[in-house]
Amino acid sequence: MLTRSLLATGILIAHLPAQAESLPIVSVEEKSWPLNASHALNVEDVQAADSAAALKTLPGAAVNRNGGLTGIAQYRGLSGDRVNVSIDGASIISGGPNAMDTPLSYIPASQLDGLEITRGTASVSQGQETLGGQIDATSYQGDFTDSDQATLDARIHSIWNSQNRGSSSSVQLTGANRHHKLGFSSSYDHADDSTFSGGDLDGTAYERQRNDVFYGYRQGNTQLNLKVGKNNTEDSGTPALPMDITSIDTNLASLNASTQVAGILFSWNSSYTDVDHGMDNYSLRPQPMMGPRHTQASGRELMHKLMATLPLDSGLIRMGVDRSETEHSALITNPDMAMFEILNFNDAERNITGVFAEWQQTHGNFSWELGARYNKVSMDADNIGAFLGSGMNGMMNMTMMTNMANRLAMSFNNSDREITDHNRDLVFKTSYQINEALSLNASLASKQRAPSYQERYLWLPLQSSGGLADGYTYLGNLDLDSETSDELNLGVDYRSDTGFISLQTFYRDVDNYIQGTPYQPSGDMMTDNAITMFASMMSNGKPALQYNNIDAKLYGGELSYGLQLNPHWSLSGTLNYVRGKRTDGSDDLYRIAPLNHRLALNYQQNQWKMQLISEVFDQQHHVSAYNEEAKTAGYGLLHLFATYDMTQALQLRAGIDNLTDKRYQDHLAGYNRISGNDDIAVGQRLYGTGRSLLLGLTYHW
Fold first, then answer.
1. How far apart are CA 486 and CA 60, in angstroms?
2. CB atoms within 10 A of CB 669
3. Which helix (H) or strand (E) holds 695?
4. What is the rounded distance in angstroms from the CA atom of residue 176 to the CA atom of residue 297?
5. CA distance linking residue 608 with residue 562, whole number of Å
6. Which of 222, 487, 501, 605 has the most CB atoms within 10 Å of its CB?
7. Consecutive H or E run containing 273
8. pLDDT tens-digit profile of 307-361?
């Protein structure tokens, strides 16, 4: 078993280059079940605003960055809807069609209590669609006590960042005894535009406030947790997207309950998300030549899950059912033209009914897991339409454009949009403990994912692509098939009293991978002309891409390690590699993280903790040709952070991010869409932030 000192310093320690904010210390604690790993955050060391930033400290994970609060989770090369994210056991959806409000944006980093990403293949009980992995985030909600007398627990956390004059602060109050706990939490994140070495990053400011009330009950084997929250994000830049956030008004609620009857553990989870989301292209950036645009989007999700866990000798069986119901709408308007309207999505529904069963067993040095899931995915969408004005607008005949748009709308409205996919997941995991120090593990999985509502119902060439941020317009496809991923994972773990090393490798073959490909003419000249004209107008002359099924493969692995040098000094690091390619053509997959390595030299003595962190990223020349993805050069970064426990209640923190003020471009950062910036041209990849001083404190009583 590793010493507590080594675990405290963390297997992986990194930062968010695009935001120049240091990240929390991350430790890996193995659960009793040997086939899963939990990656837990120490909330007192969280110094970033966006929780997605912490993903970069976990093996195989990365972040597609479109804005200060718009980090899209990536795991082993897959991202977006392929990676399932839950917060406090509740499923979280993005309200907008371009994922400005990513799931992890709904839990500020200052409120994190834990962040877990399942190593390799997710179990079928963890989520409905986990083809690309499962991420579970939990917020701090206090603890029950061992006494009937109530006690008050409070915590204040704050961090300040010099490069964008940003601050993140939170306060949490909890009153609890052995049976009840009642609490309140509030957080506020704010930043001005960021800077990089040699210039400014326009349109990167952000502002967000989150408030929650929570209640917990515990009696014997029965426990209940109820949480109600509200998230308000106001003017926040997303420079890699065609619009910025003007408002995200979200109501959230979740209920988690469990009890034991006749030795069987029953658990129930329900969650509700209601998002009202505004965005435009003129409030936080110069208005483009096409004119002002505003989009008002909404998203709603209701989800329930019932699971029974039956204990066995040296094992268990889980069985359950779950149901999710989601609905999305989006209306695009022109504030200067009262009659301009594009109904982008109208009550686009995506409902999943799932059943699953899972058997875990240990026999001697062998452990294994068998799981199966069936999902019925039902989708539908209401009629849509567009009116773009009348008369002449410069050289554009708006009456003609309206007629062309309505031709596409009529074709969509006359189509059969009620579609059902019958999908299944199959999972097998195994582990063999050779001795106390060395173990081998492997897994085989075949999983399916149905198309998203954008991939199926985007009827007009628009950049509503779930945050792809490639500058292309996309068309949906009602004929899409579900993706099918067949995956093999192999790993070896070695642990001793002074260190550990873990190597995990994978190979994933994906049939019917959904990707935009050049639009193929339908043979209807007016329809084809309309699509070509709209695509050119919306993307500076680029042709339209349509979502289609292709074949792809991804392979790679992660090496994580740690070494306790002496009672005060330790090393920890991670090496990540993933490659994604089409197998039905000669091309690479889009937005894949390059080979990268993180190494932390850690020092701990008495009240002091210090970390010197090195990050090295290789060049990325394996880029997607279908959307003209730009190559990036390799680079290296250094960061220095320290904490000092002044008292048992008060901790002070300081650090310097990007110590050498390196000028660099993260391959997963998007391309600049904001004109008028002499430091970064439109279409150029955004730079990572420059040197920044960090100061913070945590007071806990």
1. 18
2. 24
3. strand 692-700
4. 39
5. 20
6. 487
7. strand 264-280
8. 999 999 999 999 999 999 999 999 999 998 888 899 999 999 999 999 999 999 9
> If 0-12 CB within 10 Å is exposed, 13-18 middle and 19+ buried, where does residue 435 land?
exposed
CA distances from 550 to 44, 509, 583, 626, 666 (A): 45, 11, 8, 12, 27
Cα distances (Å, whole numbers) of residue 214 to 156, 181, 228, 254: 17, 8, 6, 9
Instruction: Read off the amino acid at residue 154.
Output: A
* Backbone torsion region of residue 9, taken as left when φ is above 0, otherwise alpha when ψ lies between -120 and 50, otherwise beta: alpha
The pTM assigned to this predicted structure is 0.92
Distance CA 700, CA 24 (A): 17
The C-alpha atoms of residue 211 and residue 106 are separated, in whole angstroms, by 11
- Looking at this protein, which amino acid is placed at residue 604? Q
Count of domains for the chain:
1
Q: Which two tokens stand for residue 470?
A: 């490639």
Residue 491 tokens, joined: 């790993």
Query: What does 595-651 look like in DSSP terms, one character per residue?
Result: PEEEEEEEEEETTEEEEEEEEEE--B----TTTTPPPB--EEEEEEEEEEESSSSEE
What CATH number should be reported for the domain holding residue 392? Answer: 2.40.170.20
Q: Which of 581, 696, 601, 577 is nearest to 644 (CA)?
A: 696
Q: In terms of DSSP H, where are the helices of 3-109?
A: 4-9
Closest among 372, 469, 375, 465 to 420, alpha carbons compared = 375
Residue range 657-674, pLDDT digits in tens: 999 999 999 999 999 999
Task: Give 447's strand partners.
Answer: 485
Residue with tokens 């309206």: 402
Q: What is the radius of gyration, based on Cα positions, of the chain?
A: 25
| Residue 301 binned pLDDT confidence (cut-offs 50, 70, 90) | very high
Could you give the 3-state DSSP secondary structure of residue 336?
A: coil
The whole-number average pLDDT for the span 635-655 is 95
For residue 604, give its domain range. Answer: 4-700
What is each CA distance from 690 to 65, 126, 217, 597, 693, in whole angstroms?
Answer: 16, 39, 47, 20, 10
Name the token pair of 253: 């609620």
- Confidence at residue 396, expressed as pLDDT on a 0 to 100 scale: 53
**Among residues 590, 459, 654, which one has the least CA distance to residue 80?**
590
